[in-house]
Known about the structure:
With about 220 residues, the chain is mainly β. It is about 15% helix and about 45% strand. It starts with a strand and ends with a helix.
Amino acid sequence: MRTRAVRPGAFALVWIASSLPSSLWGFQSVADRDRIESASGRAVEGHVLTSDATPEIEIEVAEEFGFVGHFPFEILGESEEYPERFRGKPVAAGERFVFAVSDENNVVEKLFIVQFEGFLPSNEFVYNYNFDTAESIGENKYRQNLWFYDARALAEDNPNSEGALTRRFLSDNGYSVADEYMMSRFVGLASEDRKSEIIIFYFEMLEGSTGHTLESFENSLT
Length: 222
């Protein structure tokens, strides 16, 4: 059974329950190709991202977004929530698919990013989210939250984070981005064992969209 849910102006989802394993693939830019695909079972063709693994899903991105490309990443056990034996070692890995709206000078106005992520088989960690009050999109539930933040400052503090890697990825592909973002994030489980997740991000550049800097925007709310 395939269930379709549409969120105006952002994306459409087709969700099919799955617990197949995922795999990483190396950097690949869109580079004039109509279809980008990999052994992971994920591919982008036109404005549709398809995954055949953790989870099986199709995401139709709004036509204003162009596909920039994708890249793999890993997450190190750097916080105190991880046992000592995992500190500084990879505990999870995944890949990001990046879509952008930009002007004629490749200055980014909006970003749409889909992140597939999972804990490595070498550990017993799982994603312990509570979905009791989460929103359903298709046949899956997603926790949603909203942030206003300085993306450049966070990237400088943690140069190995997914956000920092995305900024470098965009720069390497000829795009420039502002420092301050506003972001809506949807987090959902991607496997029944809770070792995999999918995260869907929608970004707008704060000042470009609202006319406010982070400081002036925060002041306007007080």
